[in-house]
């Protein structure tokens, strides 16, 4: 078996802890790259994505989406779209990313917009 990177080990640890918490709730999954940030709400029981948002949208402020302001905008958009889809409570899946910077900005904005996690 190949040795896993620190990122992959963190990712597996987070996902295994989430499986114990889920109890039928949807999962808010976050992915971050050097230029953009992506969020999607996934219903794991059905295996489908309910809602998604990203900084790729031209109306998101910030020059390239790699800012906390752009991440906060994505967080607000995902929360509003989730409300429209009838989702009010989710489990936050940060993947292997540390909970600071853009990931934290997205989470805080989603909470402020009314999403519970």
Please characterize this protein's 3D structure.
- GO terms for molecular function: 5S rRNA binding; structural constituent of ribosome.
- Keywords: Ribonucleoprotein, Ribosomal protein, RNA-binding, rRNA-binding.
- This is one of the proteins that bind and probably mediate the attachment of the 5S RNA into the large ribosomal subunit, where it forms part of the central protuberance.
- The model has no long low-confidence stretch (mean pLDDT 91).
- Helix 2 runs parallel beside helix 3.
- The chain is globular.
- The chain contains 3 helices and 4 strands; from the N terminus they run H-E-E-E-H-E-H.
- The protein is 38% helix and 21% strand.
- The protein is an alpha+beta fold and 117 residues long.
Which strand order do you get reading across the main beta sheet? 3-2-1-4
Q: Helical amount among residues, as a percent range?
A: 25-40%
Total DSSP E strands = 4
Q: Number of helical segments?
A: 3
Quick synopsis:
With 117 residues, the chain is α+β, with helices and mostly antiparallel strands. The protein has helices at residues 6-21, 68-84, 102-112; strands at residues 26-32, 37-43, 48-54, 90-93. It has a single domain (24-112), classed as Nucleotidyltransferase, domain 5 (2-Layer Sandwich), CATH 3.30.420.
Topology overview:
Layout: H1 6-21, E1 26-32, E2 37-43, E3 48-54, H2 68-84, E4 90-93, H3 102-112
Parallel strand pairs: 1-4
Antiparallel strand pairs: 1-2, 2-3
Helix pairs in contact: 2-3
């Amino acid at each position: 078996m190949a040795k896993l990177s620190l990122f992959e080990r963190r990712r597996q640890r987070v996902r295994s802890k989430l499986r114990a918490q889920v109890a039928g709730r949807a999962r808010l999954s976050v992915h971050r790259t050097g230029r953009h940030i992506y969020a999607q709400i996934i219903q794991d029981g059905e295996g489908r994505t309910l809602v998604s948002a990203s900084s790729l949208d031209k109306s998101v402020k910030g020059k390239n989406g790699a800012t906390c302001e752009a991440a906060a905008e994505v967080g607000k958009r995902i929360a509003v779209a989730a409300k429209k889809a009838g989702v009010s409570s989710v489990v936050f899946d940060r993947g292997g990313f540390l909970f600071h910077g853009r990931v934290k900005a997205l989470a805080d904005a989603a909470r402020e917009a009314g999403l519970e996690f």
